[in-house]
Structure formats: C-alpha cells, structure tokens
C-alpha cells in the first residue's frame, strides 16, 4: 500500500554568503527559478500556435536579512566579472520522520541592496537581489539541477546535448 503522508516538507533554512554563516541573520531566501524562454510559432497548415523552447531566462535569487551588517553591504559592487559564492541550505522532513538535506550552490553578483524602511520598535530588513550566473541544487547530496550560461542539466542529463559540439564550445 502506498504511503500518502506528506514528504519533503521544508522545516528550516539558512544561508552562507562568501563563506560566512548567516544563521540568525537571514530571514528569507529565494533560490533561482529555472524558466524556459519560448517563442510562439504558427507556420503554414497549423491551426494554432505552438510554444517552441529557445533557451532559458536569466536566473536571479534574493535574500532578506534582519541585520545591517557592514561585511554584507561591502559585497555590493565588488567589480565587473566578480561573483560571490552563496549557498542556501534547507532541512526537510517527511511526516514519517525521514530527514532530508537540500543545498543550493550559487555564483552571484549582488545587484541591489534595499535597506527598507526604518521605524522605532520595529524590525528592519535589508533585501539583497542577486544576478545568478551558475548553480547546482542537491537533495540528499544527489544533484537535481545544474545551470550556467552555457548549459542546463536535470538529474545529470544535459539538455540539448548536441549544442556544445554544434557550436564548437569546449
């Protein structure tokens, strides 16, 4: 009989930015969204248009902190071509007690630092928006997704595997 109890329920998360633990500082993490770029085509004889996958949208990420940490603020604008390593960790648990780990490794550039509204007696948050250049998502140390400017793989299978050879890309 199949077990229909909830599984892989996210219970907690944290962030490491430039190898610094943000435990107790980071209040929210948004990992990159992988999204196809599509064009609608309707050629002769077709009764309706069809979406054709042309590539992928740029990936972004973000996080919020309740801190106004000078070390973090100094990572903004570190220079052209430079990135900051960021790793998001998550703890998952099935209803039957089985535990899982998630790790999202990213190379990013901080593109926005929003220090938000400040008011006496209220929590202030700093929002960091990131341009994400590459990354890998692991669940229980098994790679689920990997992406870069040149390639996307899902479950270890490269999407459009003949593309690199056709374009003479290493």
Radius of gyration: 20 Å
Task: Output the structural class.
Answer: mainly beta
Q: Give the low-confidence spans.
A: none
Written as H for each helix and E for each strand, in order along the chain, the element string is EEEEEEHEEEEEEH
Largest sheet: 10 strands, antiparallel
State the total count of DSSP E strands: 12
Task: Tell me roughly what share of residues is in helical segments.
Answer: under 10%
**Separation of termini?**
49 Å
Individual helix count? 2
Task: Estimate the global geometry from the Cα principal axes.
Answer: globular
Write up what this structure looks like:
The protein has 170 residues and is mainly β. It is built from 2 helices and 12 strands. The protein has helices spanning 70-73, 163-167, and strands spanning 9-17, 20-21, 26-30, 36-41, 50-56, 59-65, 84-93, 99-114, 126-139, 142-147, 152-154, 157-158. Strands 1, 2, 3, 6, 7, 8, 9, 10, 11 and 12 form a 10-stranded antiparallel β-sheet that branches. The chain has a two-stranded antiparallel sheet with strand order 4-5. The model has no long low-confidence stretch (mean pLDDT 94).
């Amino acid at each position: 009989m199949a077990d229909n109890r909830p599984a892989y329920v996210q219970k907690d998360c944290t962030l490491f930015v430039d190898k610094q633990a943000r435990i107790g500082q980071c209040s929210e993490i948004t990992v990159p969204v992988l999204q196809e770029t599509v064009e609608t085509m309707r050629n002769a004889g077709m009764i309706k248009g069809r979406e054709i996958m042309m590539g992928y949208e740029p990936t972004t990420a973000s996080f919020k902190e309740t801190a106004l940490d000078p070390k973090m603020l100094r990572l903004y604008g570190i220079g052209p071509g430079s990135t900051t390593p960021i790793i998001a960790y998550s703890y998952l648990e099935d209803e039957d007690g089985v535990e899982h780990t998630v790790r999202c490794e990213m190379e990013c550039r901080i593109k926005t630092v929003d220090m938000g509204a400040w008011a006496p007696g209220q929590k202030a948050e700093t929002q960091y928006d990131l341009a994400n250049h590459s990354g890998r998502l692991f669940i229980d140390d098994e790679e689920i997704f990997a992406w870069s400017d040149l390639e996307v793989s899902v479950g270890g299978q490269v999407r459009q595997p003949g593309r690199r050879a056709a374009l003479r890309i290493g």
